[in-house]
Specification:
single chain, 216 residues, mainly alpha, two-stranded antiparallel ribbon, 4 helices, rod-shaped
Length: 216
């Protein structure tokens, strides 16, 4: 579950960075400004780095969880500030050209209105990118935290980062085959097994491997 949420959150951050964070109409043409032109570049980079690390089996769940929280905060601030900020600049532009439009009205010419005749609400200028970033950051933080908590209750491969239950008797990593280190324990009584033991010397339970080969 943690890995799935981490992957999904990272993907949402990449999508959120590409989607428009601000949108408006310019001379009747819909314009969207993608997040990668601003802070969306940073959140999309977090998503790309997380996806790359997952594919390469390099995991740092605690760090990824912190980065997810950072992306969440960036997305929340963008939701709060993008629309009002653009609306403020739009009003300043309208005030700046008001004298020009007044002169044009005196000679029966149409006014200069590059952003349309009316001014909308601040949320009308907010694109979908910040919402994707908020959801992606929260999902990434939760997924990485779950992965970290699961890793604390298990063992991991120092080479590829694969996780397995602490109670599982593993000598070699099931994902990459690297020597996992540590003693191999009997599945029944938890007695350490020596290399080549076909049966546990204490309870007699088969080790699961033929005699003469490493147990686990």
């Amino acid at each position: 579950m943690g890995t799935f949420l981490t992957f999904g959150g990272a993907f949402a951050l990449v999508v959120g960075g590409v989607l428009p964070w601000m949108r408006f109409s310019l001379f009747g043409i819909a314009v969207g400004v993608p997040g990668v032109t601003g802070w969306g570049a940073a959140t999309a980079t977090i998503g790309l780095l997380t996806l790359s690390a997952s594919l390469l089996r390099r995991r740092a769940p605690l760090l990824v969880s912190v980065l997810g929280m950072v992306a969440l905060i960036v997305g929340q601030r963008a939701q709060q500030e993008t629309g009002p900020g653009f609306l403020k600049r739009l009003l300043a532009f309208e005030n700046a050209i008001a004298p020009v439009n007044a002169r044009l009205a005196q000679v029966a010419l149409p006014p200069i209105e590059p952003f349309g005749a009316g001014i909308g609400r601040s949320r009308d200028y907010l694109g979908p990118g910040p919402l994707w970033t908020v959801v992606g950051g929260a999902t990434l933080a939760i997924g990485a935290a779950l992965t970290f908590a699961g890793g604390r209750l298990g063992r991991s491969c120092g080479h590829c980062g694969a996780l397995w239950r602490t109670g599982r008797s593993v000598r070699f990593c099931p994902a990459c085959g690297t020597d996992a280190g540590g003693p191999v324990l009997c599945l029944q009584c938890r007695t350490p097994l020596e290399s080549g033991d076909g049966f546990c010397a204490v309870c007699g339970i088969p080790s699961g491997t033929p005699s003469g080969t490493p147990a686990g």
